[in-house]
Amino acid sequence: MIIDHTTAQKGADMMIGYLAHIPNQRDWMLQKLGRKRMSAFELSNVGTSTTLRGASNFAIENMLFSQSPSAFSAAIKVSVVTGPDGRLALGSTWQEGAIENGNRDDVVGFPRPGRSTGDVKSAGFTPFSTSESLHQPSGKPTLRRVRRDVLNAKEIVRIMSEDGAVVIEGLLTQDQVARYNAETEPALAAMHPGSLVDHEEIQSFHGRNTKRLCNLTTLSKTFREEVINSDTIHSICDEFFHMTGDYWLSTAQVMSIGPGSPRQPLHRDHGNWYPARAMGPSMPESSISFLLAQNNTTEENGATLAIPRSHLWDFTLENDNLGSYEQCTIVELNAGDALVIGGKIVHGGGANRTKDIWRKVTTVMFCNAAFTQEEAFQIVLDRELVKKLPERVKKVLGFRTVYPLQSPGLNTLNNDDIAAYLGW
């Protein structure tokens, strides 16, 4: 009834129409500051947007609607729009001082915490704005997918800059998957699940019924000759780290999540290196990981959970702003597919609700060479084996001097390339 009555007025007798009769609108609005408002909030919903009209080379994937705060309207303006991706986004704005600092988080946190926030400057005021999708994951992947045979490294990195992750379908062939599984299975079968670290949080993170197998360079010929020497993987890494210099392999490990395992705590991979967290979201990405599916990963057996675009959220050393499981999309993969993620995106292993299926994914993580490698390759690997590897594999394993941005060289001896000392 209220909507019908308002539309029947055809613009007449509306508050905004009286502005024309105010001689000095600026002074009148300034007088309103700090005074009690007629209402706490007002909501504007512009409905659903589908796509651009007519032929176009552009496509709208998602939308955010926000309005400038007003001195004579409600204290909080809530702006609503549903984009072509089916996600309903909320934008909230208010003038500085309209909400007490102690209450700001309560407003930003409605209806659910964990959203991305940022400051919006408008009309000389500094309101606070927030937007968040109310769309819940359907259990189907929502990250963009690219086939290996048509991928371009620049396009992969561009997608990652927008979404934080991308799926590459068929990064490994079925033959490569079969050979790699056969080479690693004996060592994996001999392992006991669970963490060896006597620390409750680390045990929870590692998974009490999860096996983590490292030293893959030694164990698998396919891994050392075809995975970490992959032209596709290196072309993506070259593009991903091109602004920050050399990169090397941080770790490579089979993560086999066993039946009955709960969800892994959500996290960001940059947590390995506290400066990456301390510098906040403006810091360049510190790592890139290729999560290679060794068998089909599903919602039921523990497919990886990820929150698209969470790499754009604010975070600090004290608050990593990890959101919630409800915001995650479930990234199901076929054997040979790879989920490629940066170090800032929030993610975690899913719960394995099966009775007898182990979800197997190998994580191959490369990091900026300014950071320490997670895995102790230089101690563990047999140098006779390393001697036979291609030059770029020697380098990413830590047997060559590396040059992060503006560095005169790391991993050196007497200011010379470590290759001179090794003699190979």
Automatic annotation (TrEMBL):
Entries under InterPro entries matching the protein: Atf2/Sli1-like, Phytyl_CoA_dOase-like
Entry's Gene Ontology molecular function annotations: dioxygenase activity
Superkingdom in the source lineage: Eukaryota
Coiled-coil intervals, chain numbering: none
SUPFAM superfamilies reported for this sequence: Clavaminate synthase-like (SSF51197)
Membrane spanning residue stretches: none
Record keyword Oxidoreductase present: yes
Keywords annotated in UniProt: Dioxygenase, Iron, Oxidoreductase
The keyword Endoplasmic reticulum belongs to this UniProt entry's keyword annotation: no
Cofactor(s) named in the record: Fe cation
Subunit-level organization: Homodimer.
Cited PANTHER family: IRON_ALPHA-KETOGLUTARATE-DEPENDENT DIOXYGENASE ASQJ, PHYTANOYL-COA DIOXYGENASE DOMAIN CONTAINING 1
Protein name from the UniProt record: Uncharacterized protein
